[in-house]
Design a protein that fits this description.
Layout (H helix, E strand, L loop, with lengths): L3 H27 E7 L2 E6 L2 H22 L4 E6 L34 E4 L2 E4 L14 H12 L8 E5 L5 H15 L5 E5 H13 L3 H9 L3 E5 L8 H16 L3 E6 L11 H7 L3 E5 L4 H15 L5 H10 L4 H18 L5 H15 L6 H12 L13 H17 L4 H7 L5 H17 L1 H14 L6
Parallel strand pairs: 2-3, 6-9, 6-10, 7-8, 8-9
Antiparallel strand pairs: 1-2, 4-5
The structure holds adenosine-5'-diphosphate and magnesium ion.
The site of magnesium ion has 3 residues, from helix 4.
């Protein structure tokens, strides 16, 4: 097996050929090899943000180098721990890299992980203590806290609604995690209405409906996210209706979220609407300036980089859409400051916001937007959307993008073919059929496709 230094040279060579000298320099500023540990090739990032950023960008490339040269090594990214002295892996004869003065090199607390508990995956970040309370969400927050302390006895069901990125999922998961903290044996399920639907459909085709029923009707707390997607789905609504009634009769807690109040949910059956209105309905509004600043201050503490208050204010004034976009803008600024080794100042923020806001608010969905987002999602260069290369890790994303273009724009098949590197309309048709086949047969892919779709079209525009 090759030594760390050889592998590192090869990896940096690949990065350089993909991203030229400047890209490599950014990478080297952020990432160092720690060495081979068992079957792991461990790469160390200066902080969590650089870790995420570089992992997303280069993991596939690095893994490919390892696979070709040193199987079965797997690449693993970690965050550098704080050290007393400037101990660097120079004994390996690696390129030396300047110390990074802008960034503190403390490993952040390990709380942003997804926390598996029973069958449910919670995001470790979505708890009550990371939730910033302000005018726009204090009512919903108070209800959720009360419910976590008084399961099934105080407000049932709880229905939280509000626009995208305003903290509905966060609050809902906070209830689940708080309940489990108080009582690790509590039976809690968190899932989206789409996941519930998929599980139901699978249980029918696998003849496991009684198993399915037993699973959801025996919970102490059932959290169903984004119930607007139940609209117009009769079979699953019937099933959910019975699940709901049984839980409710047994005084088990039900919490629901949606993008609109029960009555406004498109094509939702009246009997569900009236069930959803039986307990308490609370909304979350867009955050005001004060709250946006508070959220950024929190984020700034978490990421261990110093961002002056006036810059937080400036960001909060300029990014007004929702909290997810606000956090995204903030992370982008901090990551950029980290890799270019510049303090966070207003010029830097302007520079980044310009691109960020343009990327995040397309007026309508265009083919190039779809290509860009799908490439980002799969972590492949955008150019591969139009290239002729046929390796499997490129073909599938390309087909996904073609299918999404067919769904989300009014382009003809031949126009889509043209936009994807001058392909024939039959190629596009084949791609769309292939994706539909996968959606039908493969539950994992269905979820993946849903995620990509949301990534491309977060506002649900059609
Ligand atoms: P929704 O489900 O309403 O679309 P999310 O719960 O996914 O929104 O929230 C989007 C992002 O914003 C998440 O990263 C979440 O942690 C963060 N967020 C939302 N509201 C708050 C808040 N009040 N305090 C801290 N973070 C928040
Ligand atoms: Mg959500």
């Amino acid at each position: 097996m090759k030594a760390t230094a050889d592998l590192w040279n090869q990896i940096t060579g690949e990065i350089k050929s993909q991203d030229n000298e400047a890209g490599l320099k950014l990478f080297l500023n952020a990432i160092q090899p720690r060495g081979i540990e068992g079957e792991k090739f461990v790469l160390e990032a200066v902080n969590e943000i650089c870790k995420d950023w570089n992992e997303r960008k280069y993991r596939i490339l690095i893994q490919k180098v390892l696979q070709e040269n040193a199987p079965p090594l797997q690449c693993v990214f970690v965050t550098r721990l704080k050290r007393s002295g400037p101990e660097r892996p120079q004994q390996l004869g690696l390129p030396t890299i300047a110390e990074t003065p802008v960034i503190e090199t403390v490993a952040p607390p390990e709380k942003h992980r997804s926390v598996p508990r029973g069958e449910t995956q919670f995001n470790g970040k979505y708890t009550f203590d990371t939730f910033v309370v302000g005018k726009s969400n204090q009512f919903a927050h108070a209800i959720c806290q009360a419910v976590a302390k008084n399961l099934g006895t105080m407000y049932n069901p709880v229905f939280i609604y509000g626009g995208v990125g305003l903290g509905k999922t966060h609050l809902m998961q906070a209830i689940g995690q708080e309940v489990l903290r108080q009582n690790p044996k509590a039976k809690v399920a968190y899932l989206s209405s789409e996941a519930f639907t998929n599980d139901f459909i699978e249980s029918i085709s696998g003849k496991r409906t009684s198993e399915f029923r037993a699973k959801y009707r025996k919970k102490d707390l059932l959290l169903i996210d984004d119930v607007q997607f139940f609209g117009g789905k009769e079979a699953v609504v019937e099933e959910f209706f019975h699940t709901f009634n049984e839980l409710f009769q047994n005084k088990k807690q039900i919490v629901l979220t949606s993008d609109s109040p029960p009555k406004k949910i498109n094509k939702l059956e009246e009997r569900l609407v009236s069930r959803f209105e039986m307990g308490i309905v609370a909304d979350i509004q867009a955050p005001d300036l004060e709250m946006r600043v508070a959220i950024l201050k929190r984020a700034a503490v978490d990421c261990l980089i110093r961002v002056p208050d006036e810059i937080l204010m400036y960001l909060a004034e300029n990014v007004t859409d929702n909290i997810r976009v606000l956090e995204g803008a903030f992370n982008r600024v901090v990551a950029y400051a980290g890799v270019v080794q510049r303090p966070v100042d207003r010029d830097l923020v302007d520079h980044i916001l310009k691109d960020f806001l343009r990327e995040n608010t397309p007026g309508r969905i265009t083919i190039s937007w779809i290509q860009k987002r799908v490439a980002q999602y799969y972590d492949i260069p955008e150019g591969e959307m139009t290239s002729k290369r046929r390796s499997q890790n490129l073909v599938l994303p390309r087909q996904v993008a073609m299918r999404l273009t067919q769904m989300l724009t009014d382009s003809s098949l031949s126009l889509i073919g043209e936009a994807f590197g001058g392909r024939d309309h039959t190629t596009v048709m084949h791609a769309c059929e292939k994706i539909q086949g996968l959606l039908k047969d493969n539950a994992d892919f269905r979820q993946e496709f849903e995620r990509v779709t949301r990534y491309v079209n977060p506002q649900g525009r059609t």
